[in-house]
Amino acid sequence: MAIAGFCRYQGAMLNLLTYGEPSALPPLLIVHGLFGSARNWGVIARRLADSRQIFAVDMRNHGESPHLHSQSYPDMADDLINVLARIGRPCDLMGHSMGGKAAMLAALSDPDAVRRLIVADIAPVAYAHTQMHNIDAMRGVDLARVSRRSEAADQLIPLVDNPALVPFFLQSLDTRETPPRWRLNLDVLAAEMDKIIGFPPVTGQYPNPTLFLTGAGSDYVKPEHRDKIKSHFPIARFAKIPGAGHWLHADKPREFEAAVRVFLDAADR
Fold this sequence. Notes:
Strand order of the largest sheet: 1-2-4-3-5-6-9-10
Order of helices and strands: EEEHEHEHEHHHEEHHEHEHH
Number of domains: 2
CATH architecture of the largest domain: 3-Layer(aba) Sandwich
Largest sheet: 8 strands, mixed
Strand content: 15-25%
Distance between the termini: 33 Å
Radius of gyration: 18 Å
Helix content: 25-40%
């Protein structure tokens, strides 16, 4: 069972879901990617919570967290550092895609706050593929004509390149309100898209164990990225999940869970 709450810092609040009870093992904070939410990780979080306490956060401008003016990685990293401070240091940290970039920057900014780091299918580099077409598609849904998600799906499917993403997007549509509303701050995500697909200049190293876990069918983490990764995460390890793409935790949830357990439960060096 997940317990919802808010993590307060500097007058703002981030929505935080809690799974399981404190144990002798460090807690794990899960950070979702662009257009996601903490609830997307419920299945993984509940299973991992059999041995440790799990937290999943709604990032700014996503889910039930505040709509703020920025989606920069320094701001998202600061958000995570504040959440980690409330959970208890050191904590394990895992982020996917946009959340993986924010997690990397948080670990580089405050290494003592993070015992182990898992980066799911992303590298600390800028990418060329924008997500503006998906924002345009969500903006194109006439919410005044929507009373349930199936009606939104009928409008959204013709507007997206990959219809398989439609159920994922619709998890961020709040149909309890009339008319429904997107829990995503689409205007800020559009304005900040260059920052989201980019990565800020960084210095320093995170000296603790790090796992770059990727989908074998994804091209987000390429061999030419490894020098950059190793310059900031010198003892990084790399693993691939066969049959998985960028959404590796959804494509192969059991294999993803197993890889996370093995890495987190390994003896500290």
